[in-house]
TrEMBL record:
Family in the record: Belongs to the class-IV pyridoxal-phosphate-dependent aminotransferase family.
SUPFAM superfamilies: D-aminoacid aminotransferase-like PLP-dependent enzymes
Lineage: superkingdom: Bacteria
Co-factor requirement: pyridoxal 5'-phosphate
Key words, A-Z: Amino-acid biosynthesis, Aminotransferase, Branched-chain amino acid biosynthesis, Pyridoxal phosphate, Transferase
UniProt protein name: Branched-chain-amino-acid aminotransferase
E.C. number: 2.6.1.42
């Protein structure tokens, strides 16, 4: 597969200056990657200047939400720039695409795309601990046709954003007892925009009450914990780590899997299981549950200081607690090259010169 590097893309890279304040996902790299799918085959990839897309107003994505996305990061890893477990994102995007009846982006094309973006944006990877180049691949059905059938044409893009960590500091979670973000048999285990759209009303309501994130319950039973809108959920009880087992409505986070691996290797007892919300709240109230935290690529590890449920408030004894701290540090030490990468998680990027 060959990738065309447009001269205009190089020109926009040369003219780009990183602002001092980054935030998360607001400063965009001046280039983007694109490949198109038509008549059963993928085009070559191209690196283009970042800019608006031309979409037909009848494009299926705009009406029937035929789209999925990924999120991964390139880190300053010692003297190199490296991607963290990108093959997991390639596999998950293929899974999300199949669920929405879209052709999966072949792993080789996905990897070429994120490597090309990281190679050309290597200068834009910020260097402070916790900062990185956030990379956002997405796929969408573009066929202009209002019939409810799968699109026959698709576009795959990768954009990138030099960023700080998504959410720093403690979070307050609201137990969402009314709405669901995903359905039984639905798209909860796929990374699709529709799940996020379904979560926005809950987030707007809880912000009014002074909370930061919804804690979603399983749509089937409404009393076991699933996860947050874009992060997986962990609790520490008597020194052991507990997280909801994958059940079809939880998104399988790469960070979740990485933290479970690190915890097991550090001798922390790990339980993947059904977690009843009322049991958890009682254990927080009694102090047996000493820490709660959430994790994801964007936010890394975010400690939870309080859970709100109706009129009741449950404060955590420790936020940030020692287990969250230890795991966050262990993960960042690998990602930023201070610790040996015993698991082969980091993939070095060949930096492009221009
Ligand atoms: C992306 C996402 C996560 C976190 O996954 P990571 O691979 O760790 O970034 C968790 N939950 C949901 C719903 C997500 O969309």
């Amino acid at each position: 597969m060959s990738i065309k590097i447009q001269p205009e893309a190089i020109a926009s890279l040369r003219g780009f200056e990183i602002p001092e304040r980054l935030g998360f996902g607001t400063v965009m790299a001046p280039v983007m990657f694109r490949a198109r799918y038509q008549d059963g085959r993928w085009s070559d990839g191209e690196l283009l200047p970042y800019g608006p897309l031309a979409l037909d107003p009848a494009a299926k994505v705009l009406h029937y939400a035929q789209t999925c996305f990924e999120g991964l990061k390139a880190y300053r890893c010692g003297a190199d720039v490296a991607l963290f477990r990108p093959e997991r994102n390639a596999a998950r995007m293929a899974h999300s695409a199949r669920r929405l009846c879209m052709p999966p982006v072949p792993e080789a094309l996905f990897m070429d795309a994120v490597r090309t973006i990281a190679a050309y944006c290597a200068n834009l990877v910020p260097g402070n601990s916790g900062e990185s180049l956030y990379i956002r691949p997405f796929l969408m059905g573009t066929q202009p046709d209002l019939s409810v059938t799968a699109s026959r044409a698709y576009e795959f893009y990768v954009i990138a954003s030099p960023s700080e960590a998504y959410h720093s500091g403690n979070m307050r979670l609201w137990v969402e007892r009314e709405d669901s973000r995903a359905a039984v048999g639905g798209t909860g285990d796929s990374k699709v925009g529709g799940n996020y759209a379904a979560s926005l009303l809950s987030i707007a309501r809880l912000k009014e009450r002074g909370y930061d994130q919804s804690l979603w319950l399983s749509p089937g039973n409404r009393h076991t914990i699933d996860e947050l809108s874009g992060m997986n959920f962990f609790a520490v009880m008597d020194g052991a780590l507990h997280t909801p087992a994958l059940n079809g409505s939880i998104l399988e986070g790469v960070t979740r899997d990485s933290l479970l691996t690190l915890a097991r290797d550090q001798g922390i007892e790990v339980h993947e299981r059904e977690m009843d919300i009322d049991d958890l709240l009682a254990l927080v109230a009694s102090g047996t549950c000493s820490e709660v935290f959430a994790c994801g690529t964007a936010a890394i590890v975010s400690p939870v200081s309080e859970l709100g449920d109706g009129e009741s408030r449950y404060k955590l004894k420790q936020a940030p607690g020692p287990v969250a701290d230890q795991l966050r540090r262990a993960l960042l030490d690998i990602q930023e090259g201070r610790a040996e990468d015993r698991y082969g998680w980091m993939q070095k990027v060949q930096v492009a010169s221009y």
